[in-house]
Amino acid sequence: MTTFASGTDTLTRDALTVLQPGFTGTTAPDWLLRRLGEGLASVGLFGRNIASPEQLAALTAQLRAERDDVLVAIDEEGGDVTRLEVRAGSSFPGNHALGAVDDVELTREVAAELGRRLAACGVNLNWAPSADVNSNPANPVIGVRSFGADPALVARHTAAYVTGLQSAGVAACTKHFPGHGDTAVDSHHALPRIDADAAVLAERELSPFRAAIAAGTRAVMSAHILVPALDRDHPATLSRPVLTNLLRGELGYSGLIVTDGMEMQAIAATYGIERGSVLAIAAGADAICVGGGLADDETVRRLRDALVTAVRAGELAESRLAEAADRVRELARWTATAAAAPAAVGEARTDVGLVAARRALKLTSAAPFTALTEPPFVAAFTPVANIAVGDETPWGVAAELARLLPGTETGSYSGEDAGRAALTVAAGRRMVAVVRDEHRHPWMAAALDTLLAARPDTIVVEMGVPQASPRGALHIATYGAARVCGRAAAEVIAGE
Questions:
Q1: Nearest-10 Cα torsion for 116, 118, 124, 127
Q2: Upstream peptide bond of 129 is cis (omega within 30 degrees of 0)
Q3: Is 260 a catalytic residue?
Q4: Whose CA is closest to 166, among 225, 215, 100?
Q5: Which of 46, 240, 343, 472 is least buried, going by the fewest C-beta atoms within 10 A?
């Protein structure tokens, strides 16, 4: 595609302003710095960009040296989806654990501490919280990222999370509108469809978003899902009835609308990222998130030129693109003002994530449990991680148990022979079986059957959504697989 402008005219600057691209590496590449000078106003960070808090602070300072009002965004939900602690596991238990505790003040404190850590590193926009109501237990991509299956519970905790995060000067981006909970398909791979009628959607899916808007969420992220009751033809990200008529009109939302990643197959495989981006802006989106997979200058140039071409061809109103760019700049102004008032955060509670993880535990046993004094063998029954979570973040209880009970060993198992393989390696040692969403994986349930038939004294730790019936000598539901969830479970097992 021909480059239509030098990067200095208003139309091209607006086209760059609405993009939120990613990049590779732990320092900003030259092309990104150049684009910031040409009008790019946002940058998205992922786990690949982060090595330490100090490095992240240096990176964001590098970006701000080029453009002092740049929006630096990150996908930091805490819990299973962490970028700040992608290689260690999160210090915060995640939404499902917070929903299990159901203490909105605790949720607010967790979000405020998470926001404080982001702000200290120079991040000012967080693609969180997930406000999805996890009404479908088979959901492969939301699960423990949701506060729960009850709309009222999800609504009150979404509002508390937004309030806490934004008290630290970090803009919340409530997602995935109009709600990704009642799906059995991951939109990273294909286009999910929700067939609920308008009345159900209004009472279930939309309740948390109403609460987030009332709490002042500065951004909302659209979902790549088809909801025929709202729009029979277009996924929500590309739907004017969803983004403009419903979110703007009926719900009265006036902040920034961000798309989910445009390279996800729900959009890219059908529309392509260029056409999809044009349609999203035309539908009412203000910012195009791209960069989780496509993270280079060529992607930025392609999307910029697609938007410019669409305006010049009369397919996209220039006023709509200008309005979108203005909303990006408006959010940048808010973050600059919020950053100037850090006292709003209050006193830091650095241990609040562990406190929440401990409170979230649910213990089930048929007889009184005696804590272990000898190192066990930990069998981790490991499902394939979804793309949002990624497979680079460690999970489980083995590392924390090894700290409390030196000599603890572990193995990872999956498939038909997982149970027998774990029994063979354990060789008579006391066993701890760690599972994640047992109800969604028949092979995992079968592995537990095999294990418990041979070793009924096995301790079972469920680190996903606890839908399957509790079993084992002790069953510990952690409501998430974050590092602090593993630590809290290990403390119970070792009697700490």
A1: -110
A2: yes
A3: yes
A4: 215
A5: 343
The stretch 151-160 carries a mean pLDDT of: 98
pLDDT category of residue 69 using cuts at 50, 70 and 90? very high
**pLDDT value, residue 386:** 56
The per-residue pLDDT for range 3-18, each reduced to its tens digit, is 333 446 999 999 999 9
Spot the catalytic one: 96, 188, 234, 475. Answer: 188
Interatomic CA distance for residues 413 and 172, integer angstroms: 37
Q: Which amino acid is at 358?
A: R
Secondary structure letter of residue 479 according to DSSP: S
**Residue for token digits 């299956």?**
149
Tokens of 389: 């979570």
| Beta-sheet strands, E only, within 216-328 | 219-222, 256-258, 288-289
The number of angstroms, rounded, from the C-alpha of 274 to the middle of its chain's C-alpha atoms is 24
pLDDT at 387 over 60: no
Query: Which of 185, 201, 96 lies closest to 148, judged by CA?
Result: 96
- Enter the tokens of residue 259: 């798309």
More confident residue, 180 or 283: 283
In this prediction, residue 424 carries a pLDDT of 96
Q: Encode 191-206 in three state secondary structure.
A: CCECCCCHHHHHHCCC
pTM: 0.94
pLDDT band at 396 (very low <50, low <70, confident <90, very high): very high
Candidates 220, 250, 263, 201; CA nearest to 130 is 220
Cβ-count burial of 298 within 10 angstroms (0-12 exposed, 13-18 middle, 19+ buried)? exposed
For residues 285 and 237, the answer to whether their CB atoms sit within 8 Å is: yes
Q: For residue 147, name the pLDDT band (cuts at 50, 70, 90).
A: very high
Instruction: Using the structure block, give the residue that is written with the tokens 């890219």.
Output: 268
Active-site residue identified among 80, 260, 286, 305: 260
First to last CA, the chain: 63
Residue 345: count of CB within 10 angstroms of its CB: 18
234 among known catalytic residues:
no
**Checking DSSP bridges between strand 71-74 and strand 42-45, what pairing results, if any?**
parallel
Alpha-carbon span 202 to 82, nearest angstrom: 30
What is the four-CA torsion angle of 404, 408, 413, 418, rounded to 10 degrees? -120
Contact indicator for 115, 341 with CB cutoff of 8 Å? no
Q: Which of 332, 353, 423, 268 is nearest to 90 (CA)?
A: 353
Q: Is the predicted pLDDT of residue 184 greater than 70, yes or no?
A: no
